[in-house]
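User: Predict the structure for this protein chain, please.
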Amino acid sequence: MDKNYRALELDKILEMVAKETTCEDGAALVRSIEPVHTPAEARRLLEETDAAFVLMAKFGAPSFYGMKNVANALRRAQAGGGLGLRELLDIGGTLRAIRSLQQWHSKNAGMHTVLSPRFDILAPNKCLEEKIFTCIQSEEEVADAASPALAAIRRKIRGAAVRVREQLDKLIHSQTHQKHLQEAIVTQRSGRYVVPVKAEFRGEVPGLVHDTSASGQTVFVEPMSVVELNNEIRVLRSDEQEEISRILLELSGEAGDFADSLIESYQFAVQLNVIFAKAQLAYRMKAVVPEIDEKGRTELHSARHPLIAKEKVVPTDITLGQDFDALIITGPNTGGKTVALKTLGLLTLMAMCGLMIPAGEGSRLPVYRHILADIGDEQSIEQSLSTFSAHMVNIIRILDVADGESLVLLDELGAGTDPVEGAALATAIIEELRRKGVRLACTTHYAELKSYALQTDGVENACCEFDVESLRPTYRLLIGVPGKSNAFAISRRLGLEGRIVDRAGELVNEENSSFEQVIERLEERRREMENELEAARKAARQARETMRQSEARQAEAGQRAKREIDQAREEASRIVQKTRQQADALLNELDELRRQQNKALSAEQKARLRSGLRDLESSADPVRKRRGDGYQLPRELRPGDSVVIFDIDKAATVLEAPKDGQVLVQAGIIKTRVQVENLRLSGEGQKAKAKPGRSVTKNVSAPEIATSLDLRGMNVEEGLMEVDAFLDRAARSHVPQVTIIHGKGTGVLRAAVQQHLRRCSQVKSFRLGAFGEGESGVTVVEMK
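Assistant: Here is the predicted structure, written as structure tokens:
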């Protein structure tokens, strides 16, 4: 890796991404990532990472479990070679992972992203995958179901073995030979069934000797009565191996036929694994996609160095390339100057690698051709280089390479030599770099550079804040404020005698003293402004809290209104149902009377009668609008009048005078506008005090996240892929506890799931279900 990138610790960030991958090729591809140098390339990489981030947030992360590089095996099979059981199982596992990726994408088919073409290229082969796993049980065993011939051969082997054992069981349990045997057991030597005979009785058991014990006291004899059966088994074993070789060669040939498509699918799956690993790291860092700026402007909001623990890192704001192209950072040692410098360089490199950055929304970064850094002490005894010499070697290299598309980061510029000469040399280096058009950020302790920044257009001061009262740095970067020397204040706080500190102050020349006083006044003014800003933020927070409470009350009012409407509808439904029942009873009674009088109603008469009944239903339904009854208001309505909304028979209070034939009224907690002719004045001349109105908001509930996963009927590999996706969704939704249903059965799936849960970073603990939860058929998982 480039020396400058390593100085900014890009290699450590890439290693963090590599740990998020699930295959060796993916990790290797991450470690080989190089920053791109054009805005278009950087945007493309960031779009891919952002697409993966959004897909993970909505649908959970896809599973890449089981992917392995099988290119060599496939090329050998393509050339006609035979593959072993382990190689074929790896091909089957890779096919299963590719199929899983395509199925995951097909579930999200309605959402097209820049990653969709990569998913579309994936070419699963379910037929070959199932054939491999049907034929091969493990890397040591081919299944009987691999072919009818193999099943028949093994059936014959088992039959012959039974007959051999029967013959030998008779021998070892016979009274004649029991005293000749070392033990009454049947064992095998060289694939043939034998019995252990005492050496002194070798001639008493006729047969072939295949082995002797280490002590020489036991010989393993194949009795003559089973020699033919053992020969038959040996021949059948040979036939079995030939059939297995034929099956493996057939599977190898079929895999070779699809070698090109499978290798291509694997390569694209590895690329997807890398992209989703970037997104997974972004999720852990709470990162955002920066805007790529083509004018060389850097604007970072609440930027955090990704290698500092979340509970310790202090967010900082950094700008460069807008009003100034050079930033001079000053402040005490251990105050955070180098961290600010590294944060600027590292976040820029991350964006150029397509990684989201740990910063606030609205951050933007440019793309540079060169990022050049001189950070840290690189003195070398072997090369006879002092600290100053080592810095100068790096700076000379930087000056040779730097151009108008470069970002240069210099730590402790001019340090390690005479202060006067060091400050002059630092100023000359800054001027030369600015002449080349670079973007520059450097740290220093020299007061001369503070003055240079104050007097030079395009150069800005910055400092890392230091709390003199607590003698602790705050690590906040303050742009536009030169760092104040705190040596005297710190010494006095630590207990140095006052007269010594005062004498030191007298020895400082008048020009430096005046400069420090100016900085002190600026610092006081800055603190005052920060206090005012904090007060304004506090007032804004209170306003937001008041608004939140108001919205909560509105939501509650909306729920009450909905309940009232639902109750009214239920009441209306009951009225309609009751009316219908009465009408049906009346109609049945009329039919009965007609039948008794042999004067049945005609079809036309029944139709008229039913039509009248429907009118009865309509008039009895309080939800439907009723016709007017010719009512005329005795006077014009006024605010406060009590009225009845005629078509729904609901009492209300007038809130505003009529306008354009409508009037605003309040019925219960609902305010609505009603036609004037639909109102009836109640208690004329009386006024009721209107209750304060509340607006009604509709609550839209988010879809519920499933808290249980049913794996019954799945094999181990499919179950573990489903568990990965399920736990990822649960973690993103902050579900505290989930249940995995694996059934009791043989316990294989339960053991595999629990073994997998021990390796899952989202899982805090797990246990079997208690009585009433499913007992050993379920595993209850507590999430972090």
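Confidence is low (pLDDT under 50) at residues 379-384, 622-627, 684-703.
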